[in-house]
Amino acid sequence: MSPLDLDSRLRTIVGAGAKRLETARGFTTVRDMLDFLPRTYLDPARPTAFSHLPHGEDVVVVGTVRSATTRTMRTRRGRILVVDLEDDSGGGTLQLTFFKPFGHQDRLVPGARVVASGQIGTYGRQLQLTHPDYAVLDAGKGSTSGGWLLGGLVPVYPATPKLSPIVHGDLLDLVLHALTELPDPLPEEVRTEHGLPGLLEAYRLVHRPQTTAEHRRGRWRLKFQEAFVIQAALAQARLASDAVPAVPREPVEGGLVDALLERLPFELTHGQHVVLGELRSDLARPVPMHRLLQGEVGSGKTVLALLAMLAVVDAGGQAALLAPTEVLAAQHHRAITAMLGPIAEGGMLGGMEGGTRVALLTGSQSAAERRANLLAAASGEAGIVVGTHALIQEHVQLAELGLVVVDEQHRFGVEQRDALRAKADAAPHVLVMTATPIPRTVAMTVYGDMTTSTLRELPRGRQPITTHVVTGDKPRWLERTWQRVAEEARGGGQVYVVCPRIGEEDDPDLPGADTVGPGGPTAPGQPGQPGGGADERPGAQGSTGPGEGEEVGQAGEGPQLHGVHQVARALRALPSTAALRIEVLHGRMSGEEKDAVMRAFAAGAVDVLVSTTVIEVGVDVADATTMVVLDADRFGISQLHQLRGRVGRGGRPGLCLLVTQGGSGEPGAVERLDQVASTTDGFELARLDLETRREGDVLGASQSGGRSGLRFLRLARDEELIVAAHEAAWATVEADPDLAGHPALRRELARLDAERAAFLERG
Ligand code: ADP
Ligand code: MG
Fold first, then answer.
1. How many Å apart are CA 129 and CA 90, to the nearest integer?
2. pLDDT tens profile 369-387
3. Which bound ligand lies closest to the C-alpha atom of 298?
4. Quick one: which ligand is closest to 642's CA?
5. Highest CATH level, class, for 43-156
6. For 213-251, what is each residue's pLDDT tens digit?
7. Nearest C-alpha to atom 11 of ligand 1 is from which residue?
8. What is the rounded distance in angstroms from the CA atom of residue 269 to the CA atom of residue 549?
9. What separation in Å is there between the alpha carbon of 759 and the centre of ligand 1?
10. What are the residues facing 655 on neighbouring strands?
């Protein structure tokens, strides 16, 4: 018989119990069982005084039976067994009650030591457990159950009504005893260097610790391994992509890069110069660049991307710029064309000699327009091609694709990168830009196969943004908000009003349209649509992606969230704002419509733009001075920070008002708004965001390379560990790229791949 390992079926070890584990917990393998870690530990040496047991919670308690009585019930037929259990401090009793005494009364005799678990209830003032699971610990009647509870700490697992914790513990015991060793993915020298226990030892420490130090040590090791495996995968991916040659793009004197630098109406900041140097030297190498450029909105990433693209064009290649939405693609196209001026009019009258062309490819173009652009791209006449991410899924031929710039990573997954690579003969260089400041642990875990550049300073002349939180229980303030909007607009400023949902054109009016907002339509009038109507989509809390995720889900009760149509209609009716030019923008409009509205807003022909978060990333309107975010508590910290980066981009200071109906969101939601209002440091906010978000949100499905989430690691807390695992893993992979000497690690990596593939298949 081959030795047991993590992939062994539970049924080969625990027999009939396997069925229960599968039904109750979904466990089928040893790994499933062992990776399910205790939620906490009880210390029998320091027992919980029963008087402090939390009502309604699932508990595991240890105590001694003081008395047990069976009596006839008054209110219904039958007999009841009442057992008084005393805690070890002698200070409190807990009643165990059984409506069918049979079988229990012989075992629960005075003096018996008992472990019991169940949900704490009360009867009168007496705490009790009704029909608890229990085990008698004293050797007494030859009980085999619950023996693992003796000595050491008592592990407590997340509860399920379908499986008694005592049975769970008994089955786990069988598994732990059946295993004699486990292949260890961590190389021995790494374990030695970091003082880590072996894998099986770690599981024993976590599930059967004698002391707190022991389970911490076990858990540390499991986290280390998780980080190590991810890092090893990233290191391998990086080595693999380094192994595919790219065409080196040497800088060209007096080329288009120089022409643009001369043309720019400003000097690059020091930070921009540094990054430009990094980009140019990466591009000149025969291995593909994989660089992540992060910098706040307005820090000047786009200019750098353009210079990098021109460097590639100078060297005979083409570059593609991919944006997450059509609005952004169109904006990039406009901005780039304007910045380039005659440089982008190659071959045209008045254009620069040796200049190039910029093609735009979007889904909403007319067939003729599209054909012309496709032709320009395919012939190589257009050195730069701008489009949405869809560009790479389509059959777009690029004659000589040398660089792909991806604006806003959020929606850009591994598989898309692969698709891109497949479009060129040699691997293109890749530059990813993101405006979301990324905490170090996330960068290492999610973008660990890339080199990171960061723009920390904003170009001079950027104006400060002031942020205020407006709570809905102060209607006066809200009135003031709309007056302020009107004042801004009259003074030549432009205003964004951001709503969490689109809504329908015939959504009910906001009551008292003279105070749009809080105190808005309440649920009782519309019992049929608690979720905010037909357009509700799963919550995008913390998501920063536009498009599909533009709407925020409404969780259960609470005031209905503001819809774009509703708010626009109300503003058009409100005396102070009625005279303003108000438009709406959201993802259900066609690309053409959206683009037309954005153009009008950018040209100053619209005063107030009521929209969803489609405006979130990258949109640049110099005269936008004010942003009002309605139901701001529904948005994540980083998302709000990005949103407000839209204002104050011209010569005038920005104002951001975060409006909340208060208390309707999840706990801590309003505190988050105060945090956003208190600082403009994006890195600090990203760190806060990380602490309040679930790991799955942080990684996002595609960003984590398909992994649906982390098992043990906490990116907000485990920085030291992740850094150590990163170094160890990269060293291991560099020394042995195929991991020929590390079969167990290789198997873990294959598992990661399989998980990713399964994930992608599910969509
Ligand atoms: P990002 O892409 O990082 O949001 P952009 O590249 O769009 O930032 O730059 C924001 C604005 O600042 C643009 O209008 C751009 O022309 C301008 N800009 C970029 N770099 C500088 C600079 N060094 N000095 C002054 N203005 C700059
Ligand atoms: Mg930008």
1. 18
2. 988 998 898 888 999 999 9
3. 1
4. 1
5. mainly beta
6. 999 999 999 999 999 999 999 999 889 888 888 999 999
7. 298
8. 34
9. 38
10. 466, 626
Of 260, 263, 266, best ligand 1 pocket probe by most atoms within 8 Å of the beta carbon: 266
Domain 43-156 and domain 256-455, same fold? Reply is: no
Distance between CA atoms of residues 203 and 206, nearest Å = 5
Which residue among 303, 463, 642, 647 has the greatest number of ligand 1 atoms within 8 angstroms of its CB, and so is best to mutate?
A: 303
Q: What is the CATH number of domain 465-679?
A: 3.40.50.300
Closest residue CA from atom 26 of ligand 1:
459
The ligand 1 atom at the shortest distance from the C-alpha of residue 299 is 3
The yes/no answer on whether domain 256-455 falls in CATH 3.30.750.24 is no
Pocket of ligand 1 (CB under 6 A): 266-269, 272, 295, 297-303, 435, 459, 618, 620
Residue 339 neighbours by CB distance under 10 Å: 16
CA 474 to chain centre: 33
| Tens-digit pLDDT profile for residues 648-702 | 777 788 999 999 886 555 667 788 899 899 988 887 888 887 777 655 555 543 3
**Closest residue (by CA) to atom 27 of ligand 1?**
459
273-283: burial string, b at 16+ Cβ within 10 Å, e else: eebbebbbebb
Q: What angle do CA 306, 324, 459 make, to 5 degrees?
A: 45
Show the DSSP H helices in 380-452 as ranges.
414-421, 440-446
Q: Bridge partners of 321?
A: 386, 405
Ligand 1 atom with minimal separation from the 295 CA: 3
| Strand ranges in 287-417 using DSSP code E only, listed in sequence order | 290-295, 318-323, 357-361, 382-388, 401-407
d(CA 329, CA 318): 17
Cα(636) to centroid(ligand 2), Å: 20
Q: Who wins on pLDDT, 705 or 357?
A: 357
| Structure tokens belonging to residue 662 | 């208060």
Of 302, 328, 339, 649, the residue with max ligand 1 atoms within 8 A of its CB, to mutate for a pocket test, comes to 302
Residue extents of the structural domains in the chain: 1-37+161-180, 43-156, 256-455, 465-679
Which-ligand-closest: CA of 339? Answer: 1
